Amino acid sequence: MKRVFLFGNASGKASVIVRIAVMAAVTLIVQWLVGLSKIQLLTGSFVNMCLLIAAMTTGIVGGICVGIVTPFIALGLGLNPNVLLVPFIAVSNAVYVVIFGVVVWLLRVDSGSTKRFWYNLLVSAAAIVLAAGLKFAFLYFVGVKWIYPLLFNVKQMAQTYNYLREHGLLDYAELEEKAAAATEQFHALSAQIKAAETRMAEIAVLKTHIINYAKTREVYAGYRKAGNSKKYLAEHESDILLHKAAKKAFDELGVKKLPSGKSLQEEYAKLLAEKKAAYAEYRRSRDEMRELLLHKQNVDRMLGKDERSEEKKQEHDRQ
Asked: With 90 labelled, which of 10, 25, 192, 295 sits at a CA distance of 20 to 30 A?
């Protein structure tokens, strides 16, 4: 019984090795075919099925061998690009096979009746669910909580090092100075563009009020000559209100002498051209600033500067 549990019902070592090789090949083929769907859950489910078949036909030892060998072969064939995850996938496959095999071995009974058949089927199903759950938990905590953050950090630091080397910023003081200069330039360009936009909006409003002021000047003069007559106001209320609104806007904008429409148009066109020219530099400066700050942040994290800054801040808050 123990031998069957470990090596299946194969008659000799050669037979066991052949079965393991066949199941390993089948598992790889299934992984490749199902992997074309790009659905990880589906791929994992079919691989688990192959591991179960391997365990049932070659025993626990054979199932473990298939589970350990196939991830490395898949890596060599390009089916699994995550190098750091491969050893953990192999271990999780072994855990899956062992849990399934042990539970089945301990709880199954010799079949001989319908009740025992259904009992054994239930045990097998429970073993599959338990093994799959433990395998998923292992891969989740290792992959999501450890490997992927590690891969992300290593990739980021490699990119940071290449960037700093290409731009001659391996000296931290130079990197800090460059980042500060890029930030200052970005804010200066941002202020320049905002100032141009503000003035352009003022010109648009001013042009409208100048037109309204010119159109309603005679009506308002008549209103003043009429001694601010309520009757005259009622007859020309909309024009008078436009005229008053224009005068109020002139006072708010500090306009003492009304500019001509041509001069406003020329100023607007000049501001628009300057804004367009500055905006191209603004985008370049923004991207440069973001990149420098990102790489500086990575260096600060690696040197522990963020942690020290946070500790100093907490000490300052406590004082």
From this structure: 10
Contact call for residues 46 and 30 (beta carbons, < 8 A): yes
**47 contact partners, CB below 8 Å, separation of at least 6:** 27, 30, 31, 70, 93
Q: What is the dihedral of CA 100, 103, 106, 108, to 10 degrees?
A: -80
- Cα radius of gyration rounded to whole Å, the chain: 39
Mean pLDDT of 278-299: 91
- Model confidence at 3: pLDDT above 50: no
Spatial contact of 88 and 138, defined as CB atoms under 8 Å apart: yes
Distance CA 58, CA 65 (A): 10
Nearest of 72, 25, 46, 7 to residue 132 by alpha carbon = 46
* Prediction pTM value: 0.50
Stronger pLDDT, 114 or 41, i.e. the higher one: 114
Which of the residue ranges 29-43, 67-81, 261-275 would you say has the lowest mean pLDDT?
Answer: 29-43
Cα separation, 284 vs 250, in Å, equals: 38
Instruction: Give 134-168 pLDDT, tens digit per residue.
Output: 888 888 887 777 777 777 777 788 888 898 989 89
**pLDDT higher than 50, residue 313:** no
Write the single-letter amino acid at 7: F
3-class secondary structure per residue, the chain: CHHHHHHCCCCCHHHHHHHHHHHHHHHHHHHHHHHCCCCHHHHHHHHHHHHHHHHHHHHHHHHHHHHHHHHHHHHHCCCCCCCCCHHHHHHHHHHHHHHHHHHHHHHCCCCCCHHHHHHHHHHHHHHHHHHHHHHHHHHHHHHHHHHHHHHHHHHHHHHHHHHHHHCCCCCHHHHHHHHHHHHHHHHHHHHHHHHHHHHHHHHHHHHHHHHHHHHHHHHHHHHHHCCCCHHHHHHCHHHHHHHHHHHHHHHHHCCCCCCCHHHHHHHHHHHHHHHHHHHHHHHHHHHHHHHHHHHHHHHHHHHCHHHHHHHHHHHHHHC
